[in-house]
Amino acid sequence: MSSFKITFMPDNVVADASSGETIIDVANRANLHINASCGGAGVCGRCRVVLAGGEVESEPGVYLSSEEYGQGVRLACLSYVVGNATINIPPESRADATVYATAQAEEETSVETLDPMAKDIEVELTAPSAADNLGDYDRLMASLTTAHGLENPEMELAALLEMPEALRDGDFSAWVTLFEDPTRPGRKVIGIRSAKAPKQVYALAVDIGTTTVWGRLVNLETGESRHSHGDLNGQISFGEDVISRIVFAAKGDGLARLKDKVIANINNLIDLMEKDVPGCRESLALVVTAGNTTMSHLLTGLNPKSIRLSPYVPAAADWPVLKAADLGIKVKGSVPLLIYPSVSSYVGGDIVAGVLASGLYQRPELTLFIDVGTNGEIVVGNQDWMTCAACSAGPAFEGGGVKFGMRAAPGAIDQFYFDPVTRTHRLTTIGEEKAIGICGSGLINIVAELFMAGVLDPQGKYVKEKAPELIRDDEDGQEYVLCPAAETGIDRDIVLTEIDVDNLIRAKGAMYSGYQTLLESVGLTMGDLEKVIIGGGFGKSLNLRNAITIGLLPELPVEKFSYIGNSSLTGATLAALSGSLWQKAGEIKANMTNFELSETPGYMDYYMASQFLPHTRSDLFPETMAARAKGAGK
Amino acid sequence: MSSFKITFMPDNVVADASSGETIIDVANRANLHINASCGGAGVCGRCRVVLAGGEVESEPGVYLSSEEYGQGVRLACLSYVVGNATINIPPESRADATVYATAQAEEETSVETLDPMAKDIEVELTAPSAADNLGDYDRLMASLTTAHGLENPEMELAALLEMPEALRDGDFSAWVTLFEDPTRPGRKVIGIRSAKAPKQVYALAVDIGTTTVWGRLVNLETGESRHSHGDLNGQISFGEDVISRIVFAAKGDGLARLKDKVIANINNLIDLMEKDVPGCRESLALVVTAGNTTMSHLLTGLNPKSIRLSPYVPAAADWPVLKAADLGIKVKGSVPLLIYPSVSSYVGGDIVAGVLASGLYQRPELTLFIDVGTNGEIVVGNQDWMTCAACSAGPAFEGGGVKFGMRAAPGAIDQFYFDPVTRTHRLTTIGEEKAIGICGSGLINIVAELFMAGVLDPQGKYVKEKAPELIRDDEDGQEYVLCPAAETGIDRDIVLTEIDVDNLIRAKGAMYSGYQTLLESVGLTMGDLEKVIIGGGFGKSLNLRNAITIGLLPELPVEKFSYIGNSSLTGATLAALSGSLWQKAGEIKANMTNFELSETPGYMDYYMASQFLPHTRSDLFPETMAARAKGAGK
Fold it and tell me: A497, B395, B417, B464: which has the fewest Cβ within 10 Å?
């Protein structure tokens, strides 16, 4: 078989390929994950790519119009390598890992200047003698003052204890790790290593999500990421959302237990990183965390109870510089811990980190930044101003309040496509296990498909004649059978009820009316938006078209949207790499105007008007309505 | 019985007394302890006091000449209350606790301005509301910045964690405990308490001696001492002197074990203080320690091995500000720990603290400050300059290198008096137990008495005919029987050999030649000394006249001498009470010129000349020699 080069855009990744391989397989091998809900059977239409150059041999498949085919659109699973080619992967076809990899790539390139708060300097001392018998510490301090211009730096115990050996091993030359908080005068000596040892300083960036905790190890000398890893937040067994965690924290030793869980998460991350990068634990000089306001409280053991008591103030929105070891994180006692500042009780450090990662704060374009979740956060602004709000969308996006709802975990129905011809559907589950429920992104996909096919009407009610075999009455209206009991892993029919759909409509409406309210507060409308950035963990699995279809995202040209994956982790990484970006994060927090939507005039009206698929005002979703008219009429 | 007032000078303590009571009992009741080695039998002559006014009824006793009696000298144990009286207690009659109490009294009065590094300020915040929903931390920081002029203070985790409750309990008014290191910009918030709680801030001053660890609790609001307590340094079982500790630290987990012991000492002190002053542990805001260079290393867990390896530099002479809890001291995690700076490997923080306590650094008089011990430290100077040296006196002062030598502990012979008429002696032991050995001060007292009686000649050899019943031959010369086996607690004759005496002569000679060398280095002689201050733990039990007699102290008028008791603890207390005095301590360390005696020309000559009782040059001890000529001729 001949070998060809397939170039994937926009990542500009070139992969070797043999003739006859599918494009989706080549992309997978190159670590570019394309949505392929049907596992490559050519029937879900989720793996649309655009042939931008060269050639592939393709079957059109049922989901491509001849017009689209003419424009170069192909299904990656039905396209075979026949020569060199350039393939464009549009955002809506990217699966989790793709988006995540993109976020990583963005992060690698977005630090223009590597100016970490922790860094090594080389110090060369005169060795002591009978005539010059200064103590080691005194000698080092004298050199730092005179030769390095540091006025009376503080020194941490851990550094003090490693000083004598380090100095002698290096013949009185040493790497001195300094920490500088750009918001305060003075520096701290946090580590001392022999000059014979490699110059090696790492930082750990952590995104503490309510559901998952992600960590990334970064080399502060080179700026490169060495390891990243995610895991379910260990607090999950004590409650799935922040409110239930706050309630749990108030009981007995609940606060300590929650704190212990997240600290265990972080220690586990470091254990894994140490395996991958031996010695990184000892070389760790900085930890930066980003999380929502409640997660940051629980990390430090600070009781978050005031967050849910009027007037809903957190114990801390901004945070002092702490020591990671003081919280139980198993690193050297001197390692500083920076916690991303929150804007308010419900717009947390993860959002500030996300805004930093998104670049919103430094661009002229009017940008909407959103993080979809039980607590959805919205930022509208540009380089000149920023407003933000949290909207209590309810748990539908995380599978809550939905009869068969569940978190995005193996067995969750995530992809769904309805065939209007056969009036049946196909679906896939996470991990390709037997279905046991519906995750948030699955819910959006199902409702969008059913709505586009006319199976759901704009009020979220089922139109029985559109799928007579699958729609049946239940006690509160009708329900749609997604999976008969025999095919599930739970021995029950998995259905989607009209109440479930209502809950989703309420959730997406809360988000959409939030965008409208924030825009209105500055005299703008949806049409003024120049960019929409989707951050946060949930965003990774969001299908762009379907999210627009249900009215969760505004109907705007696709090119205005971008996913930035785990923007909280990216923001934490950026701060780890750059003291000036950390300062910038503080400015973002300080400059962001927080709106309490429930107290903002107009929000309730917007909210009421949003309780439709996609919206009461169909003029806001003209293309969606037109496409539906075409599809639903089939 | 009538009641009278007895006034004790120089303490100016007035005690009620009944007629017929002995002066020594009245003094004891007033917590002024007068030496009374013989337990008040009127035979040791150690309880000399001076009747300065009023009257007492006295028996002259065998130790007072009629001339002395005419000058008002009385034995306190043989003087009975008959009316009001004023009694002067000379320094040589003060026993341990007296000197200690004096040191305490001095310390109480010597802080002219109470300006502790840790203090409470009252902060009044606006309570949060829907319109003003700053987080607690943000709110507090804003107030500290705007209302209290503190620029971006750091906050310790412990303070952060107590903040929300404290603010709410106090209706958003709170005591905020701030720590300010006078040598660095910025302040740290180390504690937050409800404004409804009492304003209460304590500090712990600790003297870490090689043999004993003393602590004192001081109230930083009032400056008063609340509790002081001493205990044997738990490291003692791993070696009695610093060198053996350094050796032990180098073996296996020796360093950690030594550290644990001294930390346990400090924790025990705090436990005792907490019983005495409930709540003091939680209100502790500062720990200041003073110890010799090795003790400071062991406190922090820093290996002191370089101290005894050429070129004899410590790992740290100066110290960074550490956290007490980081070392295992059971106080709040935020409590700063300040360690007194050393001058060199052998002139430690205890000496810098002692110099601060002595006031030497701020007076015009040429002053000799000494701390007698295995490692004897000497400071000569005044407000304009200071020189110091350590001299390796050997362990004789601590009972080492002496056949029956022991530490000052129950059963140690401490007081001794020789009756030239009967050619017998009387002696007392610590705790009035059966004799088991001879402590350092006992050794000095015995040698001085025997020398003055002519039983020892200036070369330190016994003159058999002066005490024929008690002097006998041994394998290396002669020995003096202090206690026959039947009267001891060890079933052996306790003797003092000529080798023991030689060791003491070497030890005192090392000290004396040190004074001479330091004085010579600045072109002065012993006669120029205007003041001699005896600090340190051993000084407390030193008999002034006997110390002069053997040539340990220079022969100068008694009024030039003063004891300041545990000067290291006093210095630590002063620093706890005053940031400017702590800064002064740093200046003392920086301005003190350290002499390595072994490398200083002339020292060996002075040393050789000192190997006599009291000295080869009898012109340096004219009165001693004259008195001896009179006594030894009896």
Answer: B464
